[in-house]
Amino acid sequence: MGVSTTPTQFARKVALLPTTLEKARVQVARSNARIGRANAEAQMRQDVNSRGVVTNAGKNVKSDTGFVVGKAGAKLSVKTRQGQSETFLVSAVGPWQLVNNRARPHIISPAGQSKIDLIGPLDPTRRKKLRTVSGRQTIVGRKGRATVLKTPYGYKRYVKHPGHSGKKTWQKALGKTKKDIAVTAPRFMVNEIARIF
């Protein structure tokens, strides 16, 4: 707006300051959400793959012989949405826990396979082991679901997963976002104030 030459011009500029700062806060929040989403997507592509797909995970593909776990994989993505007032939320979509979090060694079994057939009759000493199979507590298999797993090594009755430490994808993206916001947010506010004065 230029340099104020009279007290009236300066008073007008000061009167504009609260509304300008309010608008700038919303724009900063929106910009921060964009930065967070971009960082999370970039880290995901680095840790998983360029398409953000966890291969051999969680997608059923219909075949001629029935349902089998296919290689289409599970898609990971990030979305942003506006929360209350001037807050914006960045959230993970898809089974991020498969990549992000630590996993203990476990057995993966098909959803249609009866757990009794897989690990034997249910007795008190095996009850705990039954619950750890695929993380499900169902004793009988689900109708219409696969009874074998399709793996790169052929069809298997079950697969022993060795576990992993987790890539901490979300935490890395959050750390980078905090650093980026610390630089961009104050600069944006100063530029908005400078436009008035």
Task: Please render the helix and strand layout as text.
Blueprint: H1 7-47, E1 53-54, E2 60-63, E3 66-69, E4 74-75, E5 77-82, E6 88-93, H2 97-100, E7 106-108, H3 115-119, H4 127-132, E8 149-151, E9 154-156, E10 159-161, H5 169-196
Antiparallel strand pairs: 1-4, 2-3, 5-6, 7-10, 8-9
Helix pairs in contact: 1-5
Mean pLDDT, as a whole number?
76
Spatial separation of the terminal alpha carbons: 6 Å
| Structural category | alpha+beta
Strand order of the largest sheet: 1-4
Tally the helices: what do you get?
Answer: 5
Low-confidence stretches: 61-70, 126-139
Shape: rod-shaped
The biggest sheet amounts to: 2 strands, antiparallel
Relative strand content:
15-25%
Number of strands: 10
Helical percentage: 40-55%
- Rg over CA atoms, rounded to whole Å, is 26 Å
Q: What is the H/E string?
A: HEEEEEEHEHHEEEH
Give a structural overview:
With 197 residues, the chain is α+β, with helices and mostly antiparallel strands. About 12% of the residues have low confidence. A hairpin with a 2-residue loop joins strand 8 and strand 9. Helix 1 runs antiparallel to helix 5. It has a domain of 60 residues.
